[in-house]
Amino acid sequence: MPRIVINAAELYYQIDGQPQDPDQPVLVLANGIFQRVEAWEPLMPHLPGFRVLRYDMRGQGRSSIPPGAYTPELHADDLEALLEALNIERYHLLGLSNGGIVAQVHAARQPAGLHKLILLCTTSRIDPLIRAKVESWRLGLEWGSTEGRLRVALPWIWGRAYLEAHPEVAGAASLEQMKLAAPTVEAQQNLLAGFFTLGDLRPQLRSVTAPTLVLSGQEDLLFPPLYAQEIAQAIPGAKHRILPQTGHAAPIEVPALLAREIREFLEVNA
Length: 270
Hints:
By secondary structure, the protein is α/β, with parallel strands linked by helices. The chain is built from ten helices and eight strands. Strands 1-2-4-3-5-6-7-8 form an eight-stranded mixed beta sheet, sandwiched between helices. It is globular and about 50 Å long. The two termini are 29 Å apart.
């Protein structure tokens, strides 16, 4: 299992696939806040022709758990160092949720190797409503450990259409699987502490030069489409599209639809 030490943290990563065009940039996937690389598995079969880099941010999955708050800026520093260590000079970047926040910070630094940017189910700021939602997660973690946090977060994550089609997601067996895949309580605390440092990225986003696609879920209760619209308005030339009948977990809920949006934007033929 490949790991690399970056900024005093050991990060787990994996690279999958062979590009049809050897000059095609690598597609980098940045996890949501409590995810691990396995969360992208439903999407992977729909991305033939891509070379894909997935990695666990500090505190996630198989990566280490250094002390302190994992801020978006620190995550962005890690991403930059990881790309350099792996000699990845040309890449597209897709960030989901908190990974989308990290991707915004990274893109605003105008990295030379970034070709195209996709921001999925994310926000550029914490307003009082988002703070209240995520504070409920923190309290769920404090009062009921990982299971408490998962139960509080469940209605904010899954779309109505997906839960109606897959009611087992809210069942005991699914909850147990999610508990096993979740970071430790300490890591969750560090990840949340870092998230709460987010200010308003919109002034920085005016400096993003990479062509950008912002995707939101029609049924995403955590970060409704309004937040994606704000991002698209802040980034010069950015496009915003809404994924119908989709909640916050788009790669799991609508992998084929999401992959089609990715492919069309990156102009890669199946």
